[in-house]
Design goal:
alpha+beta; single chain; 7 strands
Amino acid sequence: MAFLAVPQPYDFALSTYRFQVYGSDRATAWHEGALHRVVSGAVVRIAAAPGGVDVEPLDAETEPVVRHLLGLVLDTDGFWTASRRDPVVAGLQPALRGFRPPLAPDPWEALVTSICAQQVSLHAAFAIRARLVERHGDPYGTVWAFPGRDRVAALAERDLVELGFSRRKAEYVLGLARCGLDLDALGSLPDEEVIERLTGIRGLGRWTAEWFLARSLGRPDAWPAGDLGLRRAVERLYGEGPMTEADVRALGDRFAGRRTVAAQVLLAGARAAA
């Protein structure tokens, strides 16, 4: 077991709650107090440790994946400092100061997960995703490797419908798998070009593209104003009446440059207040 330092304060359990509360995430599995993830055919175990995390194995191949998964690219300290005069953020800080949003290590997996989450609850989305991973991924004990793009591209629509995908979502997943877009190359493009490329694929709207910027690429200033959960969080925390997407987008201007962390802190704050 090797130690990996994480900027403090850091609350491992708080930061990884999403892998526990919505159902079992088979590809980033919470088991016996630790996260497990398959990296290049090996199971990597990540557990809390004073000042950071213990990782096994930790090497040149697994470390970049772990760093990305834990969201170490995100400037959470800068967000809290820059937003300290916002009354809502100031109220959330005592409970959430150690929260660091995790990121999705694989762009293909991130986009399929977003399709799973369209128009359903997160519990339902996790269940559908879990069935996809168990049926078509590769098992490694208590964790599975997420099914690769080529494997999914070879499936028929009925294979996905059997797992709980609607026919339309099955079409979206297969269309994404079979399209010619180089998903790995998106990380080298500016935000608006990433949005343009993704929204050119059937079934992927701006909501999906903005969450992809935030939760896959870890870009600092993504603000998915069309997300229903974010809108409800803003309404709840700021005491606003019903808000439109334009209203939410305008409110995000107060977090300019740090909208990605802001969105996820507000979501976490609203859940804690529920």
